[in-house]
Each structure stands twice: as structure tokens, then as C-alpha cells.
Amino acid sequence: MRDRLQLNLFWRAALFYVVVFYGGLVWLFPRVSQWAVEAPEPLPLPAAALSMYWWLLLTGLFIYVSSSEARRQAFLHPLYRWFGVRGTRRRQALRWGVLVALPAAVGGMFYWDGLPRLSSPAGIRSQHPTMPKAFAKLANPLRHLSAEQVRAYQATLVARGAADVPPEAARERLVAQLVGEGAGLYAINCRPCHGMQANGAGPMARGFRLKPADFRDPGLLPTVVESYAFWRVSKGGPGLPAASTPWDSAMPIWELDLGEEERWKVLLGEYFLSGVGPREPEKLP
Amino acid sequence: MSVARSMGSRCHGRPGLPALAALLVVIGTAKLAWSQAPRPPQSEQTLAEGRRIYSERCVYCHGEKGDGNGPVADYLDPRPRDFTVGMFKLRTTHSGELPTDEDLFRVVSRGIPGTAMPRWELTLSEEQRWKVVDFIKAFSPEFADRAFDPASKVVQASAPIPPSPESIAKGRAVFERAKCFECHGRDGRGDGQKSDTLEDGWGFKLRVRNLTRGWNLKGGAEPQDIYYRFTTGLNGTPMPSFRTTLSEEERWHLANYIASLARTRESEQVVVKAKRVSGDLPQTPEHPDWKLAEALQVPLTGQVLARPRWQNISVELVEARALYNDRELALLLVWDDPFADTEHHADREVSRFEATYVRPFADIPRKPGVFRDAIAVQFPVRLREGARKPHFFRGDASDPVNLWLWKADRQRQGLNPVEEYNARGFRTPLVLQPEGDQHVHGGGSWQAGQWRVVVRRALRTEDRQDIQFEEGRLIPIAFNSWDGSNGEHGLIMSLSAWSFLALEAPVPASLYLYALLALLAVGLGEWWFVRYSRRRSLELAWQDDPERVAPTGWRGPVV
Questions:
Q1: Coil, helix or strand for B451?
Q2: Fewer CB within 10 A of the end CB, N or C, for chain A?
């Protein structure tokens, strides 16, 4: 029984190749990676890695079968016998089949590889380019309200006929008012693309190749300081460097249409609606 | 869950298929019942919480008073719902009745496609959505009145009839008999003869739904959703209820038919593949050769990049096909437009706008007979290596674009309908090329709510302001589109981002040679190996048993 299962070295090498390459690298690996990262689809190995493994596998097999005279013979002799001995009619037919199929497959591979193909238009895009120096120093004048701003607001309340409001309550009311006004500006101007839910899924978002930013993405707003967001709002897509493909960005140049204070206010609304805050600038000792 | 209850109670199904019918009812109710958890009990506190969510999320459109007059309202068509009068479109209750709480919850949860109403289930919890629903109901006194209790007015739907070719064909007949085409058009593209006269209950002009745009059916595109739309009618609009005029069965067939019209627009493709043909290129959109070319669906969206921004677009999709021969390239562009607008009054064009966005009911005339329909194909003037392109919105100062602009009014006047322009960014107007440099030709026709336009140009021209086509390259291509009766002109338009046009490169003759050489080389190797194997196999046999090899005359290896 054991003898019957014994294959010669050629078939064992071939089986090893098929199992490791097709079974392991082509079939199993993508499925294991899919399971590991909970991807919706199997994640195939990149073609470059796959070809590297292919060469490694072949080199390894070559070294193995040629590592001793006995192995070399065990590998080659069955081949000599198969190709060199005339054998039965069935063997002859099979041999002709292999002899015709092999060159045809190699020729076909050359043809397939050489067919003119369009390379994928996808390119690399820098998501968070460095902001211009002029913007790096800016801070939102409406975020940390000065005592003076609060006093001015108290005065307007009094002028409107309200009873005297203590400074802390006035500050709270002013913040709420500014955030509300900012969210209103956001709803008019930014909502069509970035969405009322600040998730980048506004009614106009579908048509753009470069999807509007999802402000709820924890990798987006919380990773940039507020002046960065101010730069993006003010200068829009055309203000991006070439590495960030400005030609695909639909972001308007809002400084053409909204005043400076309005743009800062919009940011207050945007942070409020998305439920995330800006990154605080690091203080150097 | 009154919907689930009502559907369950009428679960008799078709004879012989009770199990299937029961299964369909279960599926149907699963689709209609959006709430998974039991509804939280209402209290002063939950109402206050609902008010807070409303004032943080909904107020910008629906307004502080719930009257649909928030600061965003003037920019939207359709306008946000006015909650104070208790009139709602998307219901499961009889015509003219209030919606059930589940109806409101469903709309808040999945939003209204084709409008500004988002899918709140993405960011609000079920509990939060129920609280908002309770708060919204407080705007309208009818909800508190027991006489109007919607729970008793729910449509008693029978088990759905599964969609089948027979059912769809019957539904088509119902569509004819019930005269749905008078508004929705022969093929359902919203182009019926009555469709430009309709208004809603507030006097705002209505746009009839294009039923072929499955992604825009307000109440959902499944037969179950559609069934409820014409069974209950859309309160506050001319869309009536057909509950008494059509039988239960007819309405399910009709629902299946409408659902079969609804197309999707999920497409990951970005390349218009121009197919090479040997003879002349088709000159008309009806030519059968266009079937040779693969269509690319290009999504369009509002021009929201610069003032005057526009978000109430009509053209959301252009289907592009391309063919070429050794001299010329031709494009076929197909898009839905309910009216053929072939007049243009330049004096009615609006150039000054107060706000950052155009107000659909205040700023521009949106009726037939004022502005023309038009479409523009945009290419870069220069093809660059690498990813660099002009900006998709009309290029930029350093990188101009070339536009081929087809105009319905020029077509009607018998002029060449396609004009060539150049642009260097949105801040400067389009520049018409001199007459001697006009090389693009074309023509189009409008039928049953759809324009089909062909534009043609030589592959190469002498003009340095023109795109020059090369085979085997990805050539950026984008579209602008104007629906005149939607008030669109100038920058009030819909536009696409860059897609690509590729002229199929022919297979180079050298490739056949290389493949043949590879084949021969392998064959030669085989020939050698077989010869070598013959010798070695004899040698091996001789080693085993020299006697057996003797008859072949072989005397063993020479040592």
C-alpha cells in the first residue's frame, strides 16, 4: 500500500510546486488575509511579490533536485523514460499532447503579455500636503473668546433690551450663537457635498471622482490643526500642490465668496456637526 | 408596527403557494419595518431631547417653527417639508391621511433620494430618531387629534405578486390604461404632456419623477415601496391614489413594471473605449453601428464650485459611446431631459446673484421657452505625461481646455449645432474659436424624454488650441450639461469630473512575430530534449539489462 502511494521525485516536485504556489500563495493567502483584516473580498498578493515567490520556489526546487546525484537521477530518469521510450499508443498520444501544448502556452503567454493595454489611470495622491507658512500661524479668533469679545456681546444684549447677563453666561450664549451661525453657513454652503451629517455624502457628492471629505473620519479633522482646515476652506482645490492632484478637487476657493470671519465660523459649525475637534498645536518647551 | 400587522393579517397568498406567499410577506415586512428595537416610551424628557436634536440637525432646512423655512430652504427644490400642516407624501395610509409614526421614522431613517434629506440612520441612533419623530409630530395639531389617528387608516396590502415577465407586461398595460404616461411619459422619463404645468400644494412648480432613475425614487425603488406610492398617493401633489381605480392585483403588476424601469448607476468604470471601425462613422444617433461601442455612464453633479453655484440639476447622467476610423472620431451622447428646449433668449440670462448658491424659485426662470438645452464635451488642449491635467472645471490659466458645445437652438435653426471653444478656468468666459478653426460637426434628436447627440471631428487638426487624438492613450474627457427648462445657462449647469477616452490601439505586427519566436524556441528545446531522452533511456535500460537493449544495436555508453 505504501509503495503504491510513492511518487517519483519529478511528480513530488511538481506536486510541491502546485500545492505551495497555487494552493498556498494564490488561493489560501488571500483568504487568510481577508479573514485577518475582515476585508470584504480576498486580498491577493501583489504581482511583484508573487513573481518573487515564484522564482524563490523554482530556485529552491532546483537546488533540492540537484543537490545529490541520486536526487538528480530520481528527478531526471523518469523524464528520460517518459519522453525517450516509445511506449503504448496512449503514452504516445499523451506525449504529443504535452509537446504541442507547452510551446503553444508559452507563445500564447507572450502574445497576451504584449497586447496593448491601457494602464490604470489611478495615481498616487498626497492626502495631507504641508500648508503654506502664512496659514500655519493663524488661530480661530472665535474659538477662544477674549474678555473683550464677551463684553461687547454683553453690550449688544443690553442694547437689545435684555437684562444684564453675567460674563460666564454671556460667554456660553455667544459660543452657542456662533456655533449655530457657523452650522447655518455650513448647511447652505458645504452641505451639498459634505452632507448635513458631515460624512462626505451630500446630495452633490456622487458626481465627483475625488469624493468630498468625510469630516467624521477620525483620520481627518482630528489630525490637522484648525488653521489647516482654514487653509483648505480658503484656497480650495486650486490651492493644493501638484502632488495632491488639484485638478481633480471640487473644493471651491471660498475666500472668493465668504469673508474671513464667516470662514472661521463655518469651521465652528463643521466641528460641531461632525462631533470631532481640531488637533491642538503642540507647544514646544 | 401597524404595517407589519396589517400585512400579516391579510396573508392569504395565491392558491398552492401559501408558503411562498408567507415568505414574501416576511420579506416585505422586514423591508417596511425599519425599526429593530421597540420604540422608547415618550416623556417630557424624550420630547426635550427630540427638540435638541431637531435644533442641532434639522432646523437649518425645516426651520425653527417647523414650517420648512430654514435658512437653506430657498436653495432647495423640492423645498423642505412644512411640518405644521400635517401633509406628508411618503405614507402607508390612505390618500389625504396623516402618516403613521413608522412612516415618519422610515423617512427620517433612510432619507429621501434625489432631495437634500439625508439618511439619518447613518449618524443618529434608533432612539434618537424616534425622539425626533415625536418632536416633529408636535408641530402639527392634527397628530394630537384622535379623529385623524393614522393607525386606523393604514392601507391593507395583500401579499406582493412576485416580479415576472408576465407581471411586468401586465403592469405596462396598467400604466397605459391608468394614463400614467400623461405625466411620467411614454417610457417613464417624466416627459408627459402634462408634466410642465404641475404645481404642489404650496404653488411651487413640480418636476415629475423620471421613473427610470431608480436611485431617485423618493420612497424607494423596490416594488413594495412603489406599490405604496400610487396606492396612497402623494399628499400635496397631483400624484393621486389609485387604490379605488385599480385593483389590488393591477397595482402589484404596475409596481413590478415601474420597478423594472428603474435603472441603477453603480459604475466603477472611467474609460470610454473608442472602437475602431473600417468604414465611415455613423452620422446620426440612430445608426446601428453605435451598438458596436461600449457605453460608459458618466455621473454628473451640480456646478457647486464657483458662484453661481447650482444644486438642483436635471441631468445627472450622460451615457457616452465612441467610434473612430483612420480619419475621424465620433461620440454619441445620450441623456434624459423631459423637454426639448430649442429656444434661447440671451437677454433673459442672469448674471448677478446675491447668494453663493442660486435660488431655484427666485433667481432664474425655470420653464420651457427661455433657455436652450446644450451639452459640452471637454478635453485638455495638451496631453501631458503623468497624472497632470487641467482642472476638471474649465481648466486653469496655465492649462487650457477645449470644449465642443452642442446647442439645441442652433440645431433647430439649421446651423452647425456644435461650436468649438477654449477656456482657461471658470473665472474667464468661454472663448469661441475663429470660424476657420471650427472643425466639429454633429447633430441630435430628442425623443420620449431623451436627447441623443452625435459629435464628430478629425483625429488631428492644424489648430494648436485643439485636442489631438492619439491611439492607445488615456485622454481626459469631461462633460457639462444644461437643461434649459430647468433654468440652466452659463455656469448654472451640471458637470462631470474627468473620465477618460481611449482609442483602442491596434495589435502591433511585431507581437505576432515575438509570440511565434517564443513558440519555436520552446519547440526546438523540446526536440532536443526528446532526442536526448531517447539516448538516455536506452542507456538506462542497458544498465538495467544489457540483453534487452541488444536488438537495437546500441552497444552501451562510450566510457
A1: strand
A2: C
- B222 within 8 A of B163, measured Cβ to Cβ: no
Contact A220, A278 (CB under 8 A): no
**Torsion angle of alpha carbons B30, B33, B37, B39, nearest 10°?**
-160
Is the CB of B300 less than 8 angstroms away from the CB of A191? no
Q: Does A52 touch chain B (CB under 8 A)?
A: no
Helical pair A226-235 and A260-274, crossing angle rounded to 10 deg: 120
Residue among B116, B257, B117 nearest B174 (CA):
B257
- Pairing between β-strand B475-482 and β-strand B450-458 as defined by DSSP bridges: unpaired
In the block, residue with C-alpha cell 517518459: A82
Q: How confident is the model at residue A3 (pLDDT cuts 50, 70, 90)?
A: low
Residues of B in contact with A199 (CB under 8 A): 122-123
- Give the pLDDT score at A266: 97
- Whether the upstream peptide bond of residue B288 has omega within 30° of 0, thus cis, is no
- What is the reported pLDDT for B556? 66
Nearest alpha-carbon partner for B417 in B438, B443, B379, B436? B443
Dihedral sign (CA B358, B360, B364, B370): positive
Running DSSP on this structure, what letter comes out for residue B489?
B
Among A84, A204, A257, the residue with its CB nearest the CB of B301 is A204
pLDDT of residue A120: 62
pLDDT at B341: 96
Point out the residue among B391, B472, B514 whose CB comes nearest to the CB of A110: B514
**pLDDT confidence band for B6 (50 / 70 / 90):** very low
pLDDT attached to residue A161: 83
Q: What pTM, to 2 d.p., does this model score?
A: 0.83
- Can the peptide bond before residue B308 be classed as cis, meaning omega within 30 degrees of 0? yes
C-alpha cell, A208: 465627483
The answer, yes or no, to whether residue B264 has pLDDT greater than 50, is: yes
Rg of chain A, C-alpha, whole Å:
34
A45-83 pLDDT, tens digit per residue, is 998 999 999 999 999 999 999 999 999 999 999 899 889
Integer Cα distance of A169 and A165 in angstroms: 6
The answer, yes or no, to whether residue B14 has pLDDT greater than 60, is no
* Nine cell digits for residue A130: 504641508
Q: Which amino acid is at B99?
A: P
Q: pLDDT (tens digit, 9 = 90+) per residue, B317-365?
A: 999 999 999 999 999 999 999 999 999 999 999 988 989 999 999 999 9
Higher pLDDT, B29 or B272: B272
How many residues make up chain A in this entry?
Answer: 285
DSSP string, B73-91: GGG-SSPPP-GGGT--SS-
Which pLDDT value is given to residue B16? Answer: 43
Whether chain B has a CB inside 8 Å of the CB on A222: the answer is no
Distance CA A219, CA B208 (A): 41
In this complex, do A250 and B305 lie within 8 Å of one another by their Cβ atoms?
yes
Q: Are B281 and B328 in contact (CB under 8 A)?
A: yes
What is the sign, positive or negative, of the torsion defined by CA atoms of B166, B172, B176, B179? Answer: positive
Note every long-range contact of A144-148, with CB atoms under 8 Å and residues 24 or more positions apart, other chains counting. A145/A171, A145/A174, A145/A175
- What is the 8-class DSSP label of residue A177? H
Spatial CA neighbour of B237 closest among B192, B203, B267: B203
Residue type, B249: E
With CB atoms and an 8 Å threshold, state whether A77 touches B523.
Answer: no
In the stretch 67-86 of chain A, residues with CB closer than 8 A to chain B read 76-77, 79-85
Number of helices and strands in chain A (H, E): 12, 0
Cell numbers found for residue B252: 402589484
Three cell numbers at A270? Answer: 463643521
Say if residue A28's pLDDT is above 80.
Answer: yes
Burial of A153 (0-12, 13-18, 19+ CB in 10 A): buried
At A144, is the pLDDT very low, low, confident or very high (cuts 50, 70, 90)?
Answer: confident
